[in-house]
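Lab meeting tomorrow. Look over both lines:
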Amino acid sequence: MKIAILSRSENLYSTRRLKEACIERGHEVDVIDTLHCYMDITSSRPAVRYHGEELPKYDAIVPRIGASITYYGTAVARQFEMMGTFNVNESVAISRSRDKLRSLQLLSRKGIGLPRTGFASKPDNIKDLIKNVGGAPLVIKLLEGTQGIGVVLADTAKAAESIIEAFMGLKANILVQEFVKEAGGADIRCLVIGGRVVAAMKRQGAEGEFRSNLHRGGTAEIVKLTKEERETAVNAAKVMGLNFCGVDLLRSNNGPMVMEVNSSPGLEGIESATGLDVAGKLVEFIEKNAKPNSTRTRGKG
């Protein structure tokens, strides 16, 4: 097969591992810088051009699209879909998962466990917004934040009011969310491929840090999932329409709660923690599923 990885850099761990896994399984693979692609949008013969040449026909693409380039990255992925190329994560699903508010609304509609969450533009009563999610302590999140950036823990109602007012003064979009104290600064990253959890790790925040992101000094170890946790992760991926994703769960007194569904999960932390060849499992999924014109949302925007 001929596979393209859409990535800003060939030197990134996840990109490098995916390329190695493709080669090990006998496939041709190209790493393409998403931002250097440009599109020929023609009804009779859509194409993607790169460095002055039209790209060849690929059997599949693997989008590694960072949050900062979601709009352009999904446009490139959509162009490949229009050309009949199999996309591991369809453009519509990536866009859906990147909108934190929309993704939580979709998960809620399907009855998937979530922390109590509030969203408002200009609430008349900030105290009521805080009360509605269970009061302080609570977590305040920027909708556009990634890797733990733009996530603040407010220990008291007074602190929460001040932080919310400050964010609103900057015209920032925020979520106000219940703080799940019993999680103890840890979460579980479940790696889902093709409707199945293939790897899972527990991420523990550094001492004094409520965010468990590995980028912020957290540590990771292999973890055994309960049946409910496994089902929650699989259902969350299904709701988002993602074939390949990381589902972040909190262990709460009310069962597993989904914090986020990541459409471009990193492989370094989970491969290191579990010793599993996650990249190889993704390539195996592509081998079984890559068929021309198989994008479900093709032609629907």
User: Anything to note?
Assistant: The chain has three domains: 2-96, 117-179, 182-286. The CA atoms of residues 68 and 144 lie 9 Å apart.
